[in-house]
Amino acid sequence: MRSSLIRQILILAALALIPGLGEAVYFRQKISWQSSIPPSELVTVDQARTWAGNVIWVDARPDEEFARDHVPGALSLNEDRWNELLPQFLAVWSPGKKVVVYCSSLSCNASREVARRLRKEAQLSDVFVLEGGWEAWFKKR
Amino acid sequence: MKTHTVAFALSTLISLSARAELKWEQTMIELHPTPTDKQAIGHFKYQNPGKTPVHFKSVHASCGCTTAQTQKDEVPPGGSGEITATFNIGDRTGTQVKTVTVETDEAANSKTVLTLKTIIPQQLEITPTFVFWKQGDKPDPKTITVKVGKEFTVKHIKVTSSSPDFQTKVEEKGNGEFKIDVQPQETKNLVASTLTIQPEDSQKIFYATARITNSPVVQ
Amino acid sequence: MSKTPNAQLSTSNVQLSGNASTSNVKNRTSNILRRIVDLIVAGVFIYAGAIKALDPVQFASDIDNYKIFPWPISVALAFYLPWLEIFCGFALVGRLLYRGALSILMALVLMFTLVTIAAKVRGLDITCGCFGHASQNWSFPSHLATNLGILAALVVLWVSNRSPKPL
Q1: Is B217 near chain A, with CB under 8 Å?
Q2: pTM above 0.95, yes or no
Q3: Minimal Cα–Cα distance from B99 to chain A, Å?
Q4: How would CATH label the architecture of A39-139?
């Protein structure tokens, strides 16, 4: 009786694997196994560089960090002074421009939040988060 | 998988109760600031029921928007105190979870994570906060929808445009919803306006932006 | 395990006492009741599994919110678990691999319950339960009660299925 129970469990477990794997293949573009940010929202320093003059860099870090150093030409847009900084950013934006938001590193959350608000509240498209953040950019400057 | 999860759940519960020296009254505080508050402050109280003094090695927050202060660096046996976590709300919205990690010289449990959960009330939800026309587009009106937060009652809103280049018209849809129609005079010049949206009887001001933008560059 | 499908019928037919018709009715009623619980529980899991299978990206993110597994594991579970629920649900309906399905479902519900309690204890903000984003507005007590209710139904099915039945 025991062995037949285990056999039943294994059969069901194996059966479920088939459509499970199928979905993993079907959705492979929509989900990244490395990072919880969808691949369509992330961009690497190299990719961003290929966009050259069509990129607007957005620094999501607090004012002091921005003041110390930032990507040349980047605009400061953080959640502390969102209402004040957003219109300044929008003055530089035009449709078709690619927006790349960064915060300090791979693990900070500010860039995702700023990118999310730009997409949801200002309803902008082509808003990306820089993979690796300021750290990654600095390494390749 | 079942046994691992049971073991994990049990060890989580056990480790949560096995605070060796410092006893915390709460390690998770939920705050409900008002719409006009600039800060949300959580008081994490602790006690040292042990026989040896406890020293704080470091206290640091998960983001620059939160500062944490200890009143003293050392807690004598039998002593008590609090760590004050101050979260600067800024222009943040929604539910914000920030943590403060406290490191002490306790043998058994040197790291404690204090969680500050701040529910920021959203009096008005404005969608979108940005409307634009490309140079040369027809100056048709565009609509901004304003929804009143569930816990609030707002009967009227006042909308002003910082520039006469854009006209606004407010429509009260009822059921806590308003529609703002924004229309530019023309779309030849690259002009912009900041719209201020204020619920009546409230100090808080909300913003939206209207502008005429460049046409996309042909790539 | 040499019983044939007709064995039960002949056993109940052999009962000669005056209670024969009563116990026949009792058997049939409990069979019908059990069947109803089978179908309700199966329906719950097939529905829950289908909702999650439709949006594995969202489900992976919901699993990640519990902060128990590293992200790649959350992704793997998001693709796999819903189908396990669906197949076990159908197993209940078709009375195939029945006890295996019950064991898996009981393990899943137990795990969901423990994980939900752990999340509450750790103060995590969990806005979804077993029904994907459809249940995101439920409160913690409702989630817990629903989980325990389903667990109870599964236990009842397991226990009442003790008498060996042909597969």
Answers
A1: yes
A2: no
A3: 13
A4: 3-Layer(aba) Sandwich (3.40)
